[in-house]
Amino acid sequence: MTVEGVRELIEEFEAEAARDRDSEETPEVGIVMGSDSDLDTMYGAYEALSELGFAEVTDLEDPPEARFTFETYVVSAHRTPKLMDAYASTASDRGLDVIIAGAGGKSADLPNMTASLAYPVPVIGVPVQEKSVSSVIGMPTGAPLTAVDAGKSFNAALSAVQILAREHEELRNRLVEYHEGLQGEVAAVSRDLHESGTPGFRAQRDQ
Amino acid sequence: MTVEGVRELIEEFEAEAARDRDSEETPEVGIVMGSDSDLDTMYGAYEALSELGFAEVTDLEDPPEARFTFETYVVSAHRTPKLMDAYASTASDRGLDVIIAGAGGKSADLPNMTASLAYPVPVIGVPVQEKSVSSVIGMPTGAPLTAVDAGKSFNAALSAVQILAREHEELRNRLVEYHEGLQGEVAAVSRDLHESGTPGFRAQRDQ
Amino acid sequence: MTVEGVRELIEEFEAEAARDRDSEETPEVGIVMGSDSDLDTMYGAYEALSELGFAEVTDLEDPPEARFTFETYVVSAHRTPKLMDAYASTASDRGLDVIIAGAGGKSADLPNMTASLAYPVPVIGVPVQEKSVSSVIGMPTGAPLTAVDAGKSFNAALSAVQILAREHEELRNRLVEYHEGLQGEVAAVSRDLHESGTPGFRAQRDQ
Amino acid sequence: MTVEGVRELIEEFEAEAARDRDSEETPEVGIVMGSDSDLDTMYGAYEALSELGFAEVTDLEDPPEARFTFETYVVSAHRTPKLMDAYASTASDRGLDVIIAGAGGKSADLPNMTASLAYPVPVIGVPVQEKSVSSVIGMPTGAPLTAVDAGKSFNAALSAVQILAREHEELRNRLVEYHEGLQGEVAAVSRDLHESGTPGFRAQRDQ
Amino acid sequence: MTVEGVRELIEEFEAEAARDRDSEETPEVGIVMGSDSDLDTMYGAYEALSELGFAEVTDLEDPPEARFTFETYVVSAHRTPKLMDAYASTASDRGLDVIIAGAGGKSADLPNMTASLAYPVPVIGVPVQEKSVSSVIGMPTGAPLTAVDAGKSFNAALSAVQILAREHEELRNRLVEYHEGLQGEVAAVSRDLHESGTPGFRAQRDQ
Amino acid sequence: MTVEGVRELIEEFEAEAARDRDSEETPEVGIVMGSDSDLDTMYGAYEALSELGFAEVTDLEDPPEARFTFETYVVSAHRTPKLMDAYASTASDRGLDVIIAGAGGKSADLPNMTASLAYPVPVIGVPVQEKSVSSVIGMPTGAPLTAVDAGKSFNAALSAVQILAREHEELRNRLVEYHEGLQGEVAAVSRDLHESGTPGFRAQRDQ
Amino acid sequence: MTVEGVRELIEEFEAEAARDRDSEETPEVGIVMGSDSDLDTMYGAYEALSELGFAEVTDLEDPPEARFTFETYVVSAHRTPKLMDAYASTASDRGLDVIIAGAGGKSADLPNMTASLAYPVPVIGVPVQEKSVSSVIGMPTGAPLTAVDAGKSFNAALSAVQILAREHEELRNRLVEYHEGLQGEVAAVSRDLHESGTPGFRAQRDQ
Amino acid sequence: MTVEGVRELIEEFEAEAARDRDSEETPEVGIVMGSDSDLDTMYGAYEALSELGFAEVTDLEDPPEARFTFETYVVSAHRTPKLMDAYASTASDRGLDVIIAGAGGKSADLPNMTASLAYPVPVIGVPVQEKSVSSVIGMPTGAPLTAVDAGKSFNAALSAVQILAREHEELRNRLVEYHEGLQGEVAAVSRDLHESGTPGFRAQRDQ
């Protein structure tokens, strides 16, 4: 019952896994989601990776110049289980170092199944909705997956880069730089609120 | 305290049960809901059955030509308990093979009572709201009913057809065909997202 | 990474699917659960099927004499995803008419994945714990599965037999007989409570 | 499919409804519950009514001497829906003034259906378990039922007597007397705790 | 710390309690709510009582002609506890037969405290918001109050009239008549949906 | 309907309020709870106050020698509303500086009503059970009360002393001393766990 | 990794703590929140303090003339933990008597950590969202913090002033006056609703 | 207010951070928990790491011979915030590659604060109780932490090793070997259940 479009993707994953590309050529991070309706929520992962200097691979034969890259796919656990299997089972051989997997609904099985099939590649689950948290996080003993809070794909990407940063001082520095920017913003707004006073600050803000 | 309109419907159900129509003439699937305010949620069952080639019976004396048919009624457990009783108690004799029963609110008793009264005709409960799930699914041991998630009347209809498909190869084929269509859509969107890249895909989509 | 014990089971499922046994020889109902720690909860399905005259197949080459049979396996979605896939993907060809799939925990993916892979064979999900209900029932549109309440494997088996009873008058009769027994018990206890009075009834009961 | 034991009870309810007993001879309060496993929880209603001078009727031909009486039955919404219907539909004609209906589980339909069928006799619902509260209380607009908290059958009986007390000064006095007893106990324990001091009070209590 | 406006109302309640009006002159039903922001939710009680022929008393010296009447007040448990006390403590002497008390928020104490202070006058609690249900219903043993579901002030009024209907055949008849109207509506819509078919019915409705 | 025992306590509260004791003679902290069944949970407040050098007053005519004292009463919002009113309304005049009020159940009204009636004396609410948290904390705007977590009467007492410590350097010092003790314990156990290693630490502990 | 803006604020807090200003010159109340996106919710604290005659300090060298004052800062537990530490650790030495700390999200750690670091200065936690309540209130034994309900920063400020009012009769009077105003409003609206009748009151209101 | 025991630990962390040990000498994984009462839950992390060949460091001057090691400490966010700060702030300089942080209660701040202070060292949060999940997982955008389900410290350790395995083929192999063992167990129990039949399997098990 596997239709042609699905079969082609499966074959491409398997072909890529069979090649022996250098790890610098393959994407470090794989982003998968259960439906393109999850894309707006998963966009945070794109933003965080872009902010930290990663580029998206859309054609493995013509990869971006950036040293660190990621790829993005839609894979449905319940509608295309064989495609999910192929994506996850080939992940290690395709050179992925960490996978960010997002799914919505109450039966958000994609992150869990991806973690089981891609093991021991680490998978960070992103519950796309609040009601997905329980299903994503609840893995039984022996089946590792870590999760971020509902909708926090941005943080999932930061966590993915924290994992990679252990080997790449450059990524560690980018993480620190990003964080210092955040801290500076808090300090600025704190001083501004205190010195303008509550009504003054609100007036400015609402201008 | 049974008013005339209710009494007439009860009599029609009983008259139909007393007739001995050929099973090909009677609807395979019965759809009931607690209120016409549930209709937009229950419309998914109509859509799924229509997609799989079922036609709606509105006049048993003048049935549609389609081989597989269904009927639709409003029956309120709390306002018209006697009508509910008549609908469900006559279901088997009226030729129904499976019932899809939807109800909203916290006391969504219609699917449960229908399952008890129509037994052993299988009943698939559709909680019309999230808060109805618990009441619909919570049947005691010995009183069977299966349920879909809140609002998933479309899936309830697929499940009903899965039940019928055991006898009807034709329905099995329609289910497979429908599913292949779904898979093809996932494959297409997955390839598109991957090859367009995240911003490109979003740009196309939002055009 | 598939170990030998798993590989052997997969091969057996595939070999069985390749054979062309008569449908009377193969089990009608398949029971799967995520772990043998679920067995006490899933035992209700065994009890209900036994009560309705089904026998358990433990060796397909030496099947029980009973007309209706079932089989039982442990299959873990998260620890043995390839085994789960083989079990469910071969279900139709192995002659199963309906599957009862139970899983515990918050990420109770086994019923969902089984439903997706065995499609269009109907799957009845049994949440083994209260916290599994949400994950079992929450399937997205297009991916049908029906569920019973937490722990209600007995009812899942009744529902499975309701599905089979459409073709087998004999099963319909057994269901009715079982139900009449239940009703008789309620009537007896009701009369007893009423006629003994509350303290009298309790005294008898606690003797 | 109605078995003999159920049919007999139904006939007795109908016969009693057809008689025209004086209202002093019939029980004021009817207690029904979905299963005899609910009896320990529903026992509070028995206790409260007994405390307020009501006697339990176990044989209508040989009623207790007490002016105020009640009756107790088991009636299952899901296993014996026709018995439930007969019980509730005849309630008014059998002389009941108020019904206390208890049920457990998530689909605690008995109080709701009883309220619909016995209307306009007031029904007080008792959720036998915490998880039954939502199903008992959630009646739609137009279908009245009032509920007490999970397990509070004692309070349901007090509420039933509050309803009856409007006509019967004697019951009003018993309610007041009962309440004064409660207040006296609080006052005594409050004084004792204060004057003994916390450790002293605990020491006495644990003696 | 009791301000003048509050003191005046308290004095009026006490003066009215001290009078000895005939029960036909005093309102049967008292409606109280914690804030005028609850009025839109509590309006259902007004509607139901009006539908059943009750009139609102706004001036006890110039009561409406209707045989059955009710009164409406705002009383805040947390902002005006002394006013609440006076309202409830005088309820019985002011001739009220039943009180409908609504409150919102998580600490919806008004119905509970009113029930304690007006005892043994029956109080029906209306949780104005979903989050108020738990606080309204959760009375301890010995302190009776019955509740309707969140926002169901309409049903609370029907329940109040069910209580009154025991003495007043006229009210019983109005309740039955109201219910027959409801049933007729269900029957009409059910027939219409069935005979028009789902798309036809929706088309008409959306015209 | 106020019984003698209650009336006597009310009179004693009022008499004490009318006296003009020096603030050093009256208890700083009042502990009230809805039932003596709450005492084991509320015992934490006794422990914390005792640890910080407070003594319990059991006879105002013969107060303890300690500079800082507290009193303990049982007061039920739903069974003895007039006693609760008297306790709280006289609190300020009886010299209480802060009240710790604990109640269990879902309708945990005692802390809320005490806060409203004792205002502006600060009240710290202790939900005696998890299900009491929502009812205790949910006060409307304008009606202040602060709460601790379910069962945390010990913390409520620390918070009460934090309030008093602003005026009494001595109490501030005791709070700091208590806290340093806690910190020392954490440091000791941390060092012990680290240096013994996990199995060694557990072995010691389980000896 | 502490950036300059943060370091400057830390140094200012420490410098201020090292000075020895008279307690009349320093703000009594400190308001902190985790993000300026919390400001609209925390604005209630500003409103309540302003209503009770407090002025906001925006420059310690040029304080407002009002006797009672407060200050406002943004401090993020998760983005600027060192800034939070400095704010809270210096609170006592900077003369703050009570802190109102608000935070949103599920990990609303700011109030908790502030309470631990500012100890024994009392901290009132404000959960900025409903989902923050659990995290704010759940402090372990020995680590005191009291909380108000989600969003109730207005009440937090009233509670803070209740704490201060023990020393300042003037504040006690302002609290009473504020409360009398509230009571007067309830009395006025109650009379108006009663005398206008429900439809009349609504008509006026909606004019 | 930092007591001596705490101060000594802080100094040791700082001294260790100032040294420049080779990364092979320092522990790869740090385990911290909020209280020694969490140790039984956190013991799973010890078990998993031990199973994968890690040894616990109890004395840095006398490290175990194993190539991969971990350390264990108790650090309380609410009772010893300065100790927590020192532990986390020095983590990177002390050579830790990943931290597993567990905490119980509703305000489980330790994992969150550790993640903020140890950044960019990755932190895996372990909610020690179900009620801790929400507080652990709910980090705001920009503050990364990933979490496992309540009590799943075993999985947290597997995830930590997945992170380390990217650099260490040896660890990758151990992970695979561990997983194959798990799979073999599932296959064995599945075959056993199937071939023994349900009652046979249970009989063996219960022997």
Automatic annotation (TrEMBL), chains A, B, C, D, E, F, G, H:
GO biological process: 'de novo' IMP biosynthetic process
A GO MF label: 5-(carboxyamino)imidazole ribonucleotide mutase activity
Keyword annotations from UniProtKB, A to Z: Isomerase, Purine biosynthesis
Keyword Ligase attached: no
Signal peptide location: none
Pathway: Purine metabolism; IMP biosynthesis via de novo pathway; 5-amino-1-(5-phospho-D-ribosyl)imidazole-4-carboxylate from 5-amino-1-(5-phospho-D-ribosyl)imidazole (N5-CAIR route): step 2/2
Domain PurE residue range list: 27-186
InterPro entries cross-referenced by the UniProt entry: PurE_ClassI (IPR033747), PurE_dom (IPR000031), PurE_prokaryotes (IPR024694)
Reaction(s) catalysed by this chain's protein: 5-carboxyamino-1-(5-phospho-D-ribosyl)imidazole + H(+) = 5-amino-1-(5-phospho-D-ribosyl)imidazole-4-carboxylate
UniProt-annotated binding residues for substrate: 35, 38, 79
Enzyme class name: isomerase
E.C. number(s) listed in UniProt: 5.4.99.18
HAMAP family: PurE_classI
Stated role: Catalyzes the conversion of N5-carboxyaminoimidazole ribonucleotide (N5-CAIR) to 4-carboxy-5-aminoimidazole ribonucleotide (CAIR).
PANTHER family according to UniProt: PHOSPHORIBOSYLAMINOIMIDAZOLE CARBOXYLASE, PHOSPHORIBOSYLAMINOIMIDAZOLE CARBOXYLASE CATALYTIC SUBUNIT
Family of this protein: Belongs to the AIR carboxylase family. Class I subfamily.
Protein name as it appears in the record: N5-carboxyaminoimidazole ribonucleotide mutase
Source species: Halalkalicoccus paucihalophilus
Gene name, Swiss-Prot/TrEMBL: purE
